[in-house]
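Dear Dr. K.,

Following up on our conversation at the group meeting, I've run the structure prediction for Solute-binding protein family 3/N-terminal domain-containing protein from Roseateles violae. I'm pasting the input sequence below exactly as I used it, so you can double-check it against your construct before we proceed with anything downstream. Let me know if the numbering doesn't match what you have in your notebook.
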Amino acid sequence: MPTSPKPARRLPTRIAGLLLAGLLPALAPAAAPAKCSRVLEVPVAPIGMAVTVGEGERVGGIYPDLLRSAAARDGCWINFPVVPRARQEMMFETGQADLLLPARRSARRDKLGQFVPMIQSRAMLVSLPSERAGVHSLAELLKRSELRVVVVRGYDYDAAYQAALKTLEVQGRLLWAPNPISLARMLEGAIADLAIITPTVLNGSLRGDPKLQPLLARLRYEAVDELAWGDSGVYISSRAELGADDRALLREWLQKMGRSGAAWREFQRHYPDERLSESLRPR
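The predicted structure tokens came back this morning:
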């Protein structure tokens, strides 16, 4: 008599679950070797739609999503610890971060890593409606002793910006915020009269906060010559313990994002507000 075929052997429930979760790669078909020598360390702070942090510190946004896609193609892993922006800068300066993103190009940062441009942006004076006269330059701002100015600690818009901050601090008119949301609250609460920040950063941050979203339609933007257009993108650290092959791979990923226009298309998708074109443009 022919015997009935034996039923397929089932894996124990726990092992099957781990396989589905991708936690037992040794039992799965062998994958291509990873091109990275180690897990890449990229500390981040929320900054508009460029980097978002959701529930459970789930990191997303334009740059993390583009990097994850590139890393997946080459079998690499990226760790995105969430830290305040000032700590993110410190970790980049001390070699604890492989990348600094997003970052405006500056002379100070050029000493710490290799810059890969993606877009162009500029900071502006941002405030809420009031009867005050407009401000047309940083030089004029420094003379307007009645105006209190707030900035985000760790942001850098190069030499003219840094020089203005030093003068404002000496004058006792400079206020520091840990992030764009805190900066917006200081404007709303009349703790500060105006801010110096890239409008897209503030816009993206407010869109993620239901209580502050109504401010979006009220924001007043003022361009000043000293806060010129500049390249914005990503720095590859020259102080982190990265091998030559790792650095070359990171540079390849980032240059492809910039040259292909992938980064700019994502910014266009996330920032459709026409008013923001005054502070954001392709290279």
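Two things stood out to me. Residues 40 and 78 are 5 Å apart (CA to CA). The chain has two domains: 36-121+231-281, 124-222.

Best regards,
J.T.
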